[in-house]
Amino acid sequence: MTTSRTSRVFNGLLFLFLIIFATSAKSESVDTRILNEILSYMNETIPACDDYYGYACGKWAKVHENDSYIEITGKIDHAVNQNLVLLINELAQRSVNQLSAVESKVLKFYQSCRQTKTSSLNSKNYLRLVPPNNQIPWPQFKAKSHPWGRQKFQWMETLARLRRYGLSNVFFKLDVNQDILNSSKYIIDIDVPSFQEKNERLQSSTITKLMLLLLGVERRKALNLAGKVKSLELSVRTLAERLSEGDSVDVTLRRLDQRTRGKWRNYVNIVCNQTVPSNYKVQVDNMDYLVGLIEFLQHEDPEVIATYIMLRFASHVIEEAMDIDDEISCIQDVRRNMELAVSLLYEQRFISADKMRQHKDDLLLLFEQLRKQFLLELDGNRLRLTRNQLRHLQTKARRMWIKFGNMPQDVNRTKFVEEFYADLNFSDGDNYAQCHLKLLEFRTSRWFGQLHKPALNASSYFLMTDSDTAMSSTPYYLLRQNLIIVPYGIMQEPIFHSEAHDVFKMSLLGFMLAHELMHGFVTGGIHFDFQGNGYELGADIMEKRLYKVAEDCMNSNETAYLDEREADITGIRLAYDAYFADDSPFNRTQPEFTSRPLIQLFFLNLAQFFCGDGTSSEFVDHDADELRLRQVMINFPAFAHAHNCRQDVDQMHPAKKCRMW
Length: 661
Prior knowledge:
The protein is mainly α and 661 residues long.
């Protein structure tokens, strides 16, 4: 009896020990795995105080020379895409009756992509499906024995038809935006076109000619026509630049038609697919430009105008499609066109209820500590703001939201997504181009549908994303909602693991969240209050002498992306201070899995966000990662202290350092 009792006690203690050991080993394994990945990228022959990017990221390109991604967020997206391929293959094994409506639509579009030959992914297929109107084809597709029918061509009608498929910024921009002074209200905004980015204009004359040749235009005519459409675009661009300054006015469609001699009400009717009253008001940012544009186009050759519009539409649909039909590319295509559906299916397949709660708790802990630290920085008032200015910024910080997943939080998400896609219908015989056009039209209809509804609150909100955002797992801040959205895919290694040491959590994901939080309080975001409404107080803060000093300092190495640099430089301080604060709830003990000081580990892991092998042309709306990491570190005294850098001797430790908050 005694032996039996002793045996049970021993076995119980042994079982408890094994559980504790297994838990400890698992945790250690996570930390070791993350650390080993960091170490594999380092080139310790390069001094950290002279070139921290080379030191922390010097071997990244070699390690990933055979991979398709160029940085850590791309690695995360690749893992998400691989999971989605697995999910899609599982759906394909089911019978039709076993699939939900959403699953069927996702699978149909994916399969249309996989079954499409690369050679058929050309603009001809789209242009035949979407002519200028119901009476005439594009000039290049007319029967040779018949005239084109230029008298039936109306360029505003054609642009309205194409706007339904997402084409904007041709001759003018017409978008649905939140009212600058009332974020709960959506309005139609009409503005001059932009020509800054490559996708906002035709490419070179040679490429324009090549596009025409591919569309079947004979060589001699293609050369002549390419010159004419390029000349047309240059004239419109010159007009836009000459009349770029204008006052924003609210005007009824009736008055806009009268003032410009255009057909704006008909345009809006076509885009919205309903009759809009003539007294419906839109916002016009430059009336003189619209008057001049319509006057100018009245004297231009309709065939040249139609050809220009056709080429811009052809470029648009090709840019919105993936250019190859392998599994990963087709998954990316599904993500960019059906984000809500993909998010739901990803959640259902890969995020259990327990994991969802854990991820939300982890995110909230990081975010709340960052918010708390920023409020402390505001209390310090180093910019010498007025009491009223401080109060507004504090309110904005306290009312900022964070959300895991670009999905409504207070509804049955399965039912919500099913209802959202209820009007999207694919036919059995639809090919890729037909499915793609239906999705582009569906997205536009949902976007314009916001005109008839009040803006959602942060809990109910979901972003109808652009294509690039939909394919990315990187967190982002929405300044009109005062909301940070954290896509589902980001909560995985090497970005995050719930059992990792806290230094890994705060230095990487914590920094990413701090960067997004600070977007609300630097150039751009500071112009809006906690409700996302524009207010003069933000402009007043930016006119403060100390704010200007900080801004000028951060732009001393001039950048076109000052808001991003400000968010980087303020974000690292926020993440660092939140982690190393005396009352920090995070584990700050020296870890047993490495002898590297905790502070150096913090900076090394943070650097992983910037490691990569992309060229400067591959970064959109940001400086290159190497420059970003350098600017972050040279402006943060704690980094120099961590590596004993010599002031004004080592390149990473200049005496002059920039700080805003």
